[in-house]
Amino acid sequence: MNGTRRVGILAGGGELPREIADELAREGRLVAVVAIEGEADADFGTHPVTRVNWGQIGAMIRTLKQARATELVIVGRVHRPEIGILKPDLGFFRYLPQIVKIVASGGDDSVLRRVVRFFEQHGITIIGPGDAAPNLVIAAGPIGKTASSARDQADIRKGFELVRALGAYDIGQSVIVSEDEIEAIEGAEGTDRMIARRAAKRTAGVGRAGVLVKRSKPGQDLRVDMPAIGPATVKGALEAGLDGIAVEAGKVVVAERALTLERADAAGVFVEGVEDRQEEAPPRRFNPRNVVVKFRCLGRIAPEKHATHDAVKGLAVLDALTPFNVGRAAVVVRNHVLAVEVDEGPEATIARAAGLRQWASITRRRRGVAALRETSDLTRPVMEAVAKSGYAGLAIAREAAAVPAAIVAEAEASGLFIVIRDHQNGAAS
Q1: pLDDT value at position 429?
Q2: b vs e for 396-411, b when ≥16 Cβ sit within 10 Å of the residue's Cβ?
């Protein structure tokens, strides 16, 4: 290497890793790409590439140190890895205690903050995609030929307000708002699949309306989790019948900008950077361990401590959604909000969440809680969906009617607990 320092890129899927490598090269900086097997799919051209498995932690660190990399960009689409695909090296076992703490820490924000600390302990500074390639960041205003209308701007404001409200719970980077109605909230499935859900419900022949709003969650670490859009986002927005895409100016990158704008302009879909003028100090991260909630248990099965924490967080998410008139259900597993119900019913939300991977899903024990807004939402199909999904039980925010004894008995037979929040005792943080 002749003593030359390089910028490392830990690359997942999509074209952004290659685009950032090219931008750095244009600035005269050398690049060393560490591409994750099964994730990184870009052609990196002449950039030196080392391919590693998720389990080859030692190889990752060794490659970066051999390249004399003191800075690292972590970028690209990744899926939460299945245990079965890991090919651990000696470094994996050496750092196993730290790895366990990382994946067991809960939601994406917690995991990624620990990833940053892990690399920093090895003398490698994490820099964000926006710092490495500022030309890819979307500035304020439309970036194509089409601009938002007054109706669109009202939807954008509501979308920003909703993401701010959910920021403390590590959820909701993207939402869809149409004519002042919340139509979808992104969970663990990602933006593209959230848009596809809206497209699946679209009525043929109905005109376009609504906006995809994508912004950073308040307090989000943009070094390792900077929101991004690209050609697939525009394609999805068109199929979902949306007017356009609004993103937070200065905090979202656009992949394949030329193709993205070509598609948007051809379809008359606006892509616009919007400044959040209502942004305040980041909210304190919600920690269910610091909140006291009294529950009344139906039946003989009581939740374990970890399940109680998931129940507390699930109900807190529903409370945050109350002013927006959405959210009859939420699914939380190991402090990670997998899915939030919007106009689909609790049963569908629970079934949808069952197919989503979460960090630290390394056990077959029942984990996670389905939170419901009120007892009337607990039907037999909902209870059966919880049992089939492998969750530990259900938590209900409000008792609107008695839960049928037959449902309680069937839940017990399936090994599920049912708890109702005791409003007489209240909650304290």
Answers
A1: 38
A2: bbebeeebeeebbebb
Q: What would the two tokens of residue 266 be? A: 């051809």
**Same-domain check for residues 127 and 16:** yes
DSSP notation for 361-417: ----S---EEEEEEGGG--HHHHHHHHHHT--EEEEEE-SSPPPHHHHHHHHHTT-E
**What radius of gyration, in Å, describes the C-alpha atoms of the chain?**
22
> pTM for this structure?
0.88
Domain assignment present for 329? yes
Tell me the Ramachandran region of residue 172: left when phi exceeds 0, alpha when psi lies from -120 to 50, beta otherwise: left
Q: Which domain holds residue 72?
A: 6-132
Residues of the chain with pLDDT under 70: 1-4, 80-84, 102-110, 204-205, 279-283, 357-366, 424-429
Q: Which three-class secondary structure state does DSSP give residue 72?
A: strand
Q: pLDDT per residue over 366-378, tens digit each? A: 689 999 999 999 9
Concatenating the DSSP letter of every residue in 91-113 gives HHHHTHHHHHHHHTT-SHHHHHH
Domain shared by 66 and 113, yes or no: yes
**Closest C-alpha to 325, from 348, 308, 339, 342:** 342
Cβ contact 287:309 at 8 Å = no
The CATH number linked to 349 is 3.40.140.80
